């Protein structure tokens, strides 16, 4: 099993360009998440999807949109990139309920906006 | 919403010594507390977790303790080794739910030979 797969691994954008970060999981998890990681700030939740067909805002949603395409896939879109969106982006998935055992993270996307 | 504070932000220990990282949380309804280890350039990986019906959990050289009354939990690493050098994140969430985690800011642990 691949777990959580993210693409691309690296990306450089010019201010104002758009792009979509892709994420897919093969663990049959219901819940998926997008986090950004900045130095000294830990991991901050951008958007999450509790189950197929639902999405909701996290702590830092401004400038982003998401699509839960199906149970496996959860994409993050930057419509008009800004330098403040330079960050490392992690997708994650998890089971729900008392049996949950934390997140499984993808390998990350390092995004630079110039 | 939940707020998780983590201390210290950096920790330097001699190989063989113990390391302790502490986190506090704000929401008394939180009942799931995982710890993640992130090596340089890698993804965070779950190393241990604890639920609110348990006070302590151990897995070889790592242990986590939870004080629900004081709303804090700690990660203990004994007999540290150079491969323990990494950033460690604590987190808290309320379950059963869809499992949203609130992370601490992280602790950079450096183990010197």
Please name the defining characteristics of this protein.
heterodimer; A: about 110 residues; mainly beta; 7-stranded mixed β-sheet; 4-stranded antiparallel β-sheet; 11 strands; B: mainly beta; 6-stranded mixed β-sheet; 5-stranded antiparallel β-sheet
Structural class given helices, strands, pairing of chain A? mainly beta
Estimated helix fraction of chain B: under 10%
**Please, how many helices of chain A?**
0
Give, in order, the helices and strands of chain A: EEEEEEEEEEE
Outline of chain B: globular
Rg from alpha-carbon coordinates of chain A: 13 Å
Regions with little confidence, pLDDT below 50 for 5+ residues of chain A: none
Mean pLDDT across the residues of chain A is: 92
Span from first to last CA of chain A?
Answer: 36 Å
Largest sheet of chain B: 6 strands, mixed
Beta-strand residue fraction of chain B? over 45%
| C-alpha Rg of chain B (nearest Å) | 13 Å
Total of helices of chain B: 0
Helical percentage of chain A? under 10%
Structural class of chain B: mainly beta
> What are the low-pLDDT stretches of chain B, counting only 5+ consecutive residues below 50?
none
* Secondary structure: number of strands of chain A: 11
Beta-strand share of residues of chain A: over 45%
Give a nutshell description of this structure.
Helices cover 0% and strands 49% of the residues of chain A.
Explain how this protein is built.
The complex is a heterodimer of chains A (114) and B (113). Chain A is mainly beta. Helices cover 0% and strands 49% of the residues of chain A. In chain A, a hairpin with a 5-residue loop joins strand 4 and strand 5. With 113 residues, chain B is mainly β. Chain B contains no helices and eleven strands. In chain B, a hairpin with a 6-residue loop joins strand 4 and strand 5. Chain B is globular. Chain B starts with a strand and ends with a strand. At the A-B interface, strand 4, strand 5 and strand 10 of A face strand 4, strand 5 and strand 10 of B.
């Amino acid at each position: 099993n691949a777990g959580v797969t993210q693409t691309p691994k690296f990306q450089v954008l010019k201010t104002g360009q758009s792009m979509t970060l892709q994420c897919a999981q093969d663990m049959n998890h219901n819940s998926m998440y997008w986090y950004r990681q900045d130095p000294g700030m830990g991991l901050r939740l951008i958007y999450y999807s509790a189950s197929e067909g639902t999405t909701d805002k996290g702590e830092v949603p401004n400038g982003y949109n998401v699509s839960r395409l199906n149970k496996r896939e959860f994409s993050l879109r930057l419509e008009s990139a800004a330098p403040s969106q330079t960050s490392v982006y992690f997708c994650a998935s998890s089971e729900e309920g008392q049996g949950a055992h934390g997140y499984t993270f993808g390998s990350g996307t390092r995004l630079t906006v110039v | 919403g939940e707020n998780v504070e983590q201390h210290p932000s950096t920790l330097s220990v001699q190989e063989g010594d113990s390391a302790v990282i502490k986190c506090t949380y704000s929401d008394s309804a939180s009942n799931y507390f995982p710890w993640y280890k992130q090596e340089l350039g890698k993804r965070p990986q779950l190393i241990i977790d604890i639920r609110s019906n348990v006070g302590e959990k151990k897995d070889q050289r790592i242990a986590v303790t939870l004080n629900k009354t004081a709303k804090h939990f700690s990660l203990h690493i004994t007999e540290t080794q150079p491969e323990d050098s990494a950033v460690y994140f604590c987190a808290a969430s309320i379950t059963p739910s869809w499992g949203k985690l609130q992370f601490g800011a992280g602790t950079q642990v450096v183990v010197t030979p």
